[in-house]
């Protein structure tokens, strides 16, 4: 049986120069970040414009269907990101390992608005984004470039 050729992973650590590293495996600190973070940013692109989405995901070092690391995300089949992936499966992921918290700015000056403004915290989505965005520092921020694969509806792999 021939050895399965794994596609190279392309990653760039935030503390490095702006020259990506090509590897068949993820560095341990990126793998740890993927195991611990709750969200990542998924960038897709149609022919002209990039599209970025905040996504919840599941990271698996391998599956019964793929020996390479896998990041599983779900979305509406008619979403902009799905339409982009059908036409262009190349993606970029940005994952952070947040380690500290910066409280919102409350400016006592009545001529200035606080950050965020009070109306921005009225919905659960706004609160979620506020909590994500008020985290100021990270121990790692990594960009991972790769190719997405849409699993066939009703397939054994989807059921798994």
Largest sheet, strands/sense/barrel: 6 strands, antiparallel
Number of strands: 8
- Ends: how far apart? 25 Å
How would you write the strand order of the largest sheet?
2-1-8-7-3-4
Query: What low-confidence regions span 5 or more consecutive residues with pLDDT below 50?
Result: 1-7
What is the rounded Rg? 19 Å
Compute the number of helices: 4
Structural class designation: alpha+beta
Q: Fraction of residues in helices?
A: 10-25%
Order of helices and strands, N to C? Answer: EEHEEEEHEHEH
Overall pLDDT confidence: 77
Shape: globular
The fraction of residues assigned to DSSP E strands is: 25-35%
Describe this structure in words.
It is a single chain. The protein is an alpha+beta fold. Helices cover 19% and strands 29% of the residues. The protein is built from four helices and eight strands, in the order ββαββββαβαβα. It has helices at 28-36, 80-87, 124-133, 156-159; strands at 9-13, 21-23, 39-45, 50-56, 58-60, 70-72, 90-98, 138-147. The protein has a six-stranded antiparallel sheet. Strands 5-6 form a two-stranded antiparallel ribbon. The longest helix has 10 residues, at 124-133. It starts with 8 loop residues before the first strand and ends with a helix. The model is unreliable at 1-7 (pLDDT under 50).
């Amino acid at each position: 049986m021939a050895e399965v050729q794994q596609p190279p992973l392309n990653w760039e650590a935030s503390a490095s120069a702006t020259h990506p590293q090509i590897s068949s495996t993820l560095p341990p600190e990126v793998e740890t970040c993927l195991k611990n973070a709750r969200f990542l940013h998924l960038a897709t692109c149609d022919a002209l414009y990039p599209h970025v989405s905040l996504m919840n995901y599941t990271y698996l070092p391998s599956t019964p269907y793929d020996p390479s690391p896998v990041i599983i995300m779900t979305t509406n089949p008619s979403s902009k990101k799905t339409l982009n992936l059908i036409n262009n499966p190349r993606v970029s992921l940005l994952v952070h390992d947040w380690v500290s918290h910066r409280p919102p700015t409350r400016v006592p000056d009545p001529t200035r608005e606080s950050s965020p403004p009070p109306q921005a915290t009225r919905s659960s989505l706004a609160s979620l984004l506020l909590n994500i965005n008020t985290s100021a520092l990270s121990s790692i921020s990594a960009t991972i470039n790769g190719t997405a694969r849409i699993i066939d509806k009703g397939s054994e792999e989807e059921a798994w």
